[in-house]
Amino acid sequence: MTVWRPAPGWGSRHDSGVHPLLRAAQARQCHIQRGTDMLFEMIPAYLRFFDLPVATPEQLRALAEIRY
Predict the structure, then answer these.
(1) Is 18 helix (H, G, I), strand (E, B) or coil?
(2) How does residue 17 score in pLDDT terms, banded at 50, 70 and 90?
(3) What pLDDT sits at residue 16?
(4) pLDDT tens digits along 24-64
(5) Is residue 57 part of a domain?
(6) In a domain, 2, yes or no
(7) Pick from 30, 42, 33: nearest CA to 14
(8) Who's near 14: CB < 8 A, 6+ residues apart?
């Protein structure tokens, strides 16, 4: 895939921040989500599955020590 030619509306997730492919997608008004953001959204479901106390994605982000 040519990095500078993603189709409008294309989406991607990546763990280490915004890399060239995601920047190209943003330039074409495509929705992107960092991998860490996706994990914050998924963690509450895992906590519920294992019958552990559930935290919201916002609470998890507030506690996280992530530097991009």
Answers:
(1) coil
(2) low
(3) 55
(4) 888 999 988 777 888 999 999 999 999 999 999 999 999 99
(5) yes
(6) no
(7) 33
(8) 21, 22, 32, 34, 35
Residue 29 in domain: yes
CA of 49: how far to CAs of 33, 38, 39, 42, 43, in Å? 24, 17, 15, 11, 10
pTM for the complete prediction? Answer: 0.54
Neighbours of 31 (CB within 10 A): 10
Element containing residue 12 per DSSP (H, E): strand 12-14
Query: What is the domain count for the chain?
Result: 1
Question: Where do the H-state alpha helices sit in the chain?
Answer: 20-27, 35-49, 57-63
**Residues 41/55, Cβ–Cβ less than 8 Å:** no
27 contacts 7 by C-beta, under 8 angstroms: no
- Can you read off the two tokens belonging to residue 37? 């953001």
Domain contains 5: no
